[in-house]
Automatic annotation (TrEMBL):
Protein known as: Septum site-determining protein
The keyword Membrane appears for this protein: yes
Keywords: Membrane, Transmembrane, Transmembrane helix
A Pfam family it matches: TadE
Length: 124
């Protein structure tokens, strides 16, 4: 009597073969999410910084602008804030580093910039 070999366990073998590809795909997708979120954070922080700078007095503009941007950023995302005013327009630029897999750990050598401007408001 000959015994036929079945295909029992084939699914487990195929899954183990595909597991590295599945993990790499998930890691790449997560990294894309972090890049997109960093762009969103930079843009939002620049908007808030420009608004805060537009309503502040000229002597307090730089500090208010910088503080408003930093207040909008989570602790894991650190970055530089550059504020200025010229011709009645207050501008803000926020530069953030894109984190690698875990925010707060290491970052890519890729800087994301968010820029915004707001018209300077006059005080009565």
């Amino acid at each position: 009597m000959r015994r036929r070999r079945g295909d029992g366990g084939q699914v487990a073998v195929e899954f183990l073969g595909m597991l590295p590809l599945i993990v790499v795909t998930l890691v790449l997708l997560w990294q894309c999410v972090l890049v997109g979120y960093t762009f969103t954070l930079a843009g939002n922080a620049a908007d808030e910084a420009a608004r805060a700078g537009a309503v502040a007095s000229p002597g307090e503009r730089e500090g208010a602008c910088r503080q408003a941007a930093l207040d909008e950023l989570p602790d894991a995302w650190s970055g530089g804030v550059d504020c200025g005013a010229r011709g009645g327009l207050v501008t803000a630029e926020v530069t953030l580093r894109v984190p690698v897999l875990f925010p707060g750990a290491i970052g890519f050598p890729l800087d994301v910039r968010g820029r915004a401007g707001a018209v300077e408001e006059e005080k009565d």
